[in-house]
């Protein structure tokens, strides 16, 4: 596809509640928006309530327009529901969800450096930083040569902060410049650990050398004051500082005379109502500088230090967001691989057997799911089929489904199913730290219609016989892997020609609508009542359509799996 013009850059500001905003360049037309990557979305929104193919932004003669591609709740621009709409600077795109994502359309932002499709974009430039210090002519007129030299150091540091050098190299150079500006003996960059305590990430000396982090004890009093006040603490002569600071143990012991502590905060975030009022973001860390010699700091020195702190916070913030994005992409790639493997293990293109017709489908609520089904022949005259639902979601459940599928595939060697079930149960219970169990229904249909089945806590399949619907059984049973002493046994039932079995996971019956009501077994019975002789595919599609209509677009929290089996007398 052709790339769009990048001058000015067209960007989408993606705002999820409680998350940092991200900026994504619109560099193709059509630019697809939706959930997941399966449909080629350029902007992938990780909200299950958003359709996989949601919306598209396309170029028109004088700009851009957005088009609804079938999102269930509709596409809204500035609060108005639209099918298609021209976009203008600042337009807000919503998806009909009160607590969902909002996208702000921008066409006039100039990037400070080339950005990739995955980078978190920060619309700041060296010029905007200089604005904090005043206009360049006024600085040149009012600042002595030493001040201009420091300003030059700041400009050099700023240009490095936006370079493509490794992060630690950039931060080390930034610390070197801060030491030069303040004539300090040493400088530290501190970051909070998992418990929120500031730990030294980087320590530098006056010659640009790395110092052992444990060899320097920064003043905790100064750091706490800077964080409490959310402002830099700059003391040119600690003998003249407040009593708490100059009497701090680390300052007295180390005989310090100069100290600078600059807290670093994430980029300002808009309030939840997207008003123009801003608040400080998350504490990213602090810059700490000290010396045993007193120093005199002018107003321009203080402004330069403040600007340097803002720039350092910005690069740390960007680095954190980019790292989070890379981690998200890595996890998504791993999930995609796991999904591909899981989908490959499911039976595809189910073939009918001389005495059996089958069809099945799985709709995981996440990239990978804990449901699966299988159908395979056992000898010439018997066919096995099963459906399983592993407790939990995501990769953990998917791993166990793969293990179960491998174990049960051994039944093709004419192994006794009851022995296999009891063995798997003891194995899972013997590894209880995995914290997983599974419900399962396993059946074998012989050519003469004899159905031998094992139940393990799974909802009873529905039997459709001459238009009447009934549960295959009503007795309860234990899931596999829950109780080591459980003993699984086989039951037998004689099927008549055209008897249809509908096997389903509880994601069908526990589907919720917007009022948090469950679809339930009764509705499922009603959907199937009166069916007689219809194709298996129509049975399957009718169930999913009924669930979809009932849920009214509400997000679902469980996988939905169906397996439909019909016995037919062999010729």
Model description:
This protein is of the alpha+beta class and 571 residues long. It has three domains: 107 residues, Sandwich (Tumour Suppressor Smad4), CATH 2.60.200.20; 200 residues, Beta-Lactamase (2-Layer Sandwich), CATH 3.30.450; 222 residues, Phosphatase 2c, domain 1. 30% of the residues lie in helices and 27% in strands. The chain contains 13 helices and 28 strands. The strands form six sheets. It has a six-stranded antiparallel beta sheet, with no helix packed on it. Strand 12 and strand 13 form a beta hairpin. Helix 1 packs antiparallel against helix 8, helix 4 runs antiparallel to helix 8 and helix 8 packs parallel to helix 9. It is elongated and about 100 Å long. The N terminus is likely disordered.
Number of domains: 3
Q: What is the CA-CA span between the terminal residues? A: 55 Å
Helix content: 25-40%
Identify low-pLDDT runs.
1-7, 109-145, 269-279
Numbering strands along the chain, what is their spatial order in the largest sheet?
A: 2-1-11-10-7-8
The protein's oligomeric status is single chain
Instruction: Based on Cα principal axes, name the global outline.
Output: elongated
The averaged pLDDT comes out at 78
């Amino acid at each position: 596809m052709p790339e769009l013009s990048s001058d000015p850059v067209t960007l989408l500001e993606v705002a999820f509640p409680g998350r940092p905003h991200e900026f994504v360049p619109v560099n193709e037309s059509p630019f697809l928006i939706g959930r997941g990557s399966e449909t080629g979305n350029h902007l992938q929104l990780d909200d299950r309530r958003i359709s996989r193919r949601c919306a598209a932004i396309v170029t028109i003669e004088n700009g851009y327009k957005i088009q609804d591609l079938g999102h269930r709740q509709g596409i809204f621009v500035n609060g108005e529901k639209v099918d298609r709409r021209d976009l203008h600077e600042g337009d807000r795109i919503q998806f009909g969800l009160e607590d969902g994502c909002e996208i702000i359309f921008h066409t006039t932002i100039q990037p400070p450096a080339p950005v990739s499709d995955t980078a978190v974009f920060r619309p700041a430039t060296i010029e905007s930083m200089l604005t904090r210090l005043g206009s360049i002519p006024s600085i040149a007129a009012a600042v002595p040569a030493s001040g201009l030299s420091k300003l030059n150091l700041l400009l050099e540091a700023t240009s490095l902060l936006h370079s493509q050098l490794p992060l630690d190299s950039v931060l080390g150079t930034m610390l070197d410049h801060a030491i030069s500006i303040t004539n300090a003996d040493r400088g530290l960059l501190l970051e909070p650990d998992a418990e929120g305590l500031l730990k030294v990430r980087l320590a530098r000396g006056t010659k640009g050398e790395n110092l052992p982090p444990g060899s320097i004890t920064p003043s905790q009093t100064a750091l706490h004051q800077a964080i409490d006040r959310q402002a830099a603490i700059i003391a040119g002569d600690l003998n003249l500082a407040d009593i708490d600071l100059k009497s701090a143990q680390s300052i007295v012991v180390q005989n310090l005379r100069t100290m600078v502590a600059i807290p670093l905060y994430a980029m300002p975030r808009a309030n939840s109502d997207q008003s123009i009022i801003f608040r400080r973001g998350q504490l990213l860390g602090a810059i700490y500088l000290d010396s045993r010699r007193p120093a005199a700091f002018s107003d321009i020195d203080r402004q330069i230090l403040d600007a340097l702190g803002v720039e350092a916070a910005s690069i740390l913030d960007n680095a954190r967001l980019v790292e989070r994005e890379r981690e998200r992409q890595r996890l998504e790639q791993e999930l995609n691989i796991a999904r591909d493997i899981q989908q490959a293990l499911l039976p595809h293109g189910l073939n009918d057997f001389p005495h059996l017709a089958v069809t099945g489908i799985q709709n995981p609520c996440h990239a990978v799911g804990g449901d699966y089904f299988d159908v395979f022949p056992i000898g010439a005259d018997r066919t096995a089929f099963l459906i399983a639902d592993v407790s939990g979601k995501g990769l953990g459940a998917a791993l166990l489904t793969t293990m179960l599928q491998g174990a049960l595939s051994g039944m093709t060697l004419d192994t006794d199913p009851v022995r296999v079930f009891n063995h798997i149960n003891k194995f899972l219970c013997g590894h209880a730290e995995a914290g997983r169990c599974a419900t399962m229904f396993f059946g074998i249909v012989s050519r003469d219609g004899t159905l031998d089945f094992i139940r393990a806590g799974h909802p009873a399949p529905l039997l459709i016989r001459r238009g009447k619907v009934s549960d295959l059984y009503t007795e309860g049973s234990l899931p596999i892997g829950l109780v080591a002493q459980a003993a699984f046994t086989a039951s037998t039932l004689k099927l008549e020609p055209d008897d249809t079995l509908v096997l389903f996971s509880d994601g069908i019956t526990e589907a919720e609508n917007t009022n948090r009501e469950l679809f339930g077994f009764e509705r499922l019975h009603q959907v199937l009542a009166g069916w007689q002789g219809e194709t298996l595919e129509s049975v399957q599609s009718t169930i999913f359509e009924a669930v979809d209509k009932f849920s009214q677009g509400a997000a679902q929290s469980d996988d939905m799996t169906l397996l439909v089996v019909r016995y037919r007398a062999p010729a």
